[in-house]
Amino acid sequence: MRKDFVIRDLIETDKLFCEECKLDGAKAWAKYMTKESIMVSGTLGKDIIGEDSIYKVMVKVFDLKNISFKWFPVYADVSDDATLGFTSGTYNRTYFADGKKVLEEGKYISIWKKVNNSWKISLDMGN
Question: Which position among 50, 64, 69, 116 has the lowest Cβ density within 10 Å, counted as fewest Cβ atoms?
Fold first, then answer.
């Protein structure tokens, strides 16, 4: 298996993750998690562990008025055995709060692992 193909597959998975979240919100977000996944965010105050807990947090995020959330992977790499990888890039999120449009921009990194031949997020962190 060529490493460049695996990296390309991981990048496409991250892009698909974003597109699915635009359609299915928190449900799509949870689809890419496992019971061991960890989500770290400066705005949440504490780490969120497990797909069920992450889903509950993301429901609140996707319930924000006129939420638009997108990200784009800029960097990616995978382990030599193609079981671990990371994507890193930029994101932006817009929504309305208190009658005003809010724009949040930042960077993210997601550490992925292969679970039953599918990429799942082990650790997701954004600033």
Answer: 116
DSSP the chain: --HHHHHHHHHHHHHHHHHHHHHHHHHHHHHT--TT-EEEETTTSS-EESHHHHHHHHHHHHTSEEEEEEEEEEEEEE-TTSSEEEEEEEEEEEEEETTEEEEEEEEEEEEEEEETTEEEEEEEEE-
| Tokens encoding 84 | 């671990």
Q: What is the pTM of this model?
A: 0.92
State the pLDDT at residue 89: 98
CATH topology of domain 3-126: Nuclear Transport Factor 2; Chain: A, (3.10.450)
